[in-house]
Amino acid sequence: MHPHHDVVVIGGGQAGLAMGYHLARQGRDFVILDAAPRVGHVWRTRWNSLQLFTPARYSALPGLDFPAPPEHLPNKDEVADYLERYAHHFGLPVRSAEAVRALRPRTGAGFEIETERGIYTANQVVIATGPFQRPMVPPLAAKLSAGVTQLHSSEYRAPDQLPAGEVLVVGGGNSGVQIAAELAAARPESRTWLSLGERLPRLPERLLGQSLFWWCERLGVMDVSVGSRLGRRMSEKETLIGESPAMLVRRLGVRVVGRTERAEGASIHTRDGAAVQPSAVVWATGFRADFGWVQADIFDERGRPRHTRGVTEMPGLYFLGLPWQHTRGSALIGWVGRDAEWLAARLRER
After folding, report:
1. How many C-beta atoms lie closer than 10 Å to residue 27's C-beta?
2. For all residues of the chain together, what is the average pLDDT?
């Protein structure tokens, strides 16, 4: 007989832990399966200087405050420690180093979950792995010569990881801008380039002495749903928080170029006609979802889950922690608990 649970939560990050908190409060029989070797592992493996934009007051999961002054900006290791402490504090049944290979519906009702260690069965399943499973690197990267060091942003840790010489950061989102700023400040003797696909709107980290997220809460921005006209517009484009590429040009001398379109030998060519010969490239080109292990007809033509606030068309199968699953905060540590509470109530109804 395979181990059976009322609910299996797949993913032990912030979304999975928030769901676990609410399931535990309901007295449900559940388990959280996570591929990582320990809780908080994904945060620990981000670049060394990474900090949240959200102050500690907005960086907590339900039931346990973040252990820092309210306006402190937690670094990635503090977040990892907090998540590990959270799981221990509430005694959540997290089974680490247990990657799920396949999820399939059972004949009649319920689900079978195949992991590297065995098979579980469940009446209901919550997929809380988030959308960022597989790093995206454009195919043109393969045309760069072997002498050019290449890293995806998920592999980048610190400036001393890269060889001497010029560096090109490809990608103008928050990760790309932050990494370019760190490299330019740490290596003033070497030129840092930043390749932008598009110019993104920007908001400051603080405004009139208050955190950006203080304003977002007070103005109701975090409550705008993706189903509204404003929510649809907001969800279509990432927003930079903090410095813009233009500010990096003025403060640090970063060279900004257009979209990367072609690689040849040791050179990268951009849409605006620039040709860069870097010693290293950091691909801050994002991630893509990888739900190929979910054997259920619940995805659209682009591989995105079809759902309403995380509830799919298949009875008993749910998602949690997707960007804009319901609001701007759906994938953020300080707000995912709201979605988890709502979704846990739907599970209980079933």
Report:
1. 7
2. 95
- pLDDT tens digits for range 166-224: 999 999 999 999 999 999 999 999 999 999 988 888 999 999 999 999 999 999 999 99
Percent of the chain predicted with pLDDT > 70: 100
Query: Nearest CA to 195 among 266, 278, 132?
Result: 278
Residues 154 and 277 in one domain: yes
Please indicate, yes or no, whether residues 115 and 186 belong to a single structural domain of this protein: no
Distance CA 334, CA 207 (A): 20
Residue 170: name the closest of 142, 151, 191, 148 by CA. Answer: 151
For residue 179, give both structure tokens: 């990494």
Q: How many CB atoms lie within 10 A of CB 251?
A: 12
Count of beta carbons in the 10 Å neighbourhood of residue 246: 12
Same domain membership, residue 100 and residue 17: yes
Domain that holds residue 177: 137-201+237-283
Say whether 223 sits in a helix, a strand or coil.
helix
The whole-angstrom separation of Cα 13 and Cα 82 is: 11
pTM, entire model: 0.94
